[in-house]
Design brief:
By secondary structure, the chain is mainly beta. Helices cover 6% and strands 50% of the residues. It contains two helices and 23 strands. The strands form two sheets. Strands 1, 2, 3, 4, 5, 6, 7, 8, 9, 10, 11, 12 and 13 form a 13-stranded antiparallel sheet that branches. It is globular and about 65 Å long.
Length: 377
Amino acid sequence: MRRKIRAAALLLAVNMAALLAGCEARPPAAGLDVASALGGEATAGFARARTPRQFRFPEDHNAHPDFRNEWWYFTGQVAADSGERFGYQVTFFRVALAPPGPERPSAWAARQLWMAHVAVTAIDGGHHWHEERFARDALGLAGQQAQPFRVWLEDWALSGGDGGRFPWQLAIETDAFELALSLEPLREPVLQGDGGLSQKSAEPGNASYYYSITRLATRGSITLDGEAHSVSGSSWLDREWSTSALGEDQAGWDWFSLQLDSGTDLMLYQLRNRDGGSDPHSAGLFLAGDGRQRTLNVDDFQLRPLRWWRAQSGARYPVAWRVYLPREGLELVVEALLDDQAMATAVRYWEGAVEVRAARGGAAVGRGYLEMTGYDP
């Protein structure tokens, strides 16, 4: 029965997401276009990110249903006591089916779609697993609550203290792997863009409210093939909510979250136009180990692909990059720890663990995650 419910939710979610994006409904195998899904269609009745706002924590760890899209996005690298290394991703996506309105009496009624992506990379074992689920916020299948803090889709859950207080726990169980991780911030939330307003294209309102916690101490276990590995390491949280973000001429992005051994954290994203060029709204953040930070614009960094990998779908992804920040004197090579970390989900993309090396000499200087969208529409 549970599999039938999940299959029905999947079919509904994919069709409704496609309708919201203003495109033809398609099954997951065909994929959804990320640029269309985050474009400016179906915005009537929703709030839009137009001006900087006052962020409040822990309240803003909770959902913002006035906006159409929202996510809780975790990536991290951890190591077992044996030294074996793993990467992981857990993301909960909320997509509104309709603007906020009066409560509906039926238990079947829903205003929100939920999608979750989870993945584990066995870095030394050379394997990548991923899964995806969909559900409506009806019948208790999925949702978000503040007291106590919880985000869930069926039995996949993020939980914490009242209102969103830490520590948080991630609990994920699939046929291929299990995650049971505890997360505790090592740094305060940092606002991206202009005081948390992250402008993604020229049109007013094509923006998100965006904050990150760039280092979270991570402990727990990863279970593969029935064997539990006690692990510890570091994670990164990105939180965004918006109603529309990308413009008509934008195809996708290349997004880097890098934790350097020096204590510096670096976030960069390059928005790519459909003609292959870099959009002027590309941006980033330099956060030094002592807390100093600088918002980066498109002229403050350079990204150059060094090596490409071809997925089974035929899409080519640049899995090694040269990253140059002239003002900070940083010249880095960022390269996938495993080339095949493609996410063959309803929205096809590449998301995976990377190592960071000095461009001169090649010494290891950090680790992180890389996400690339729009290469396989």
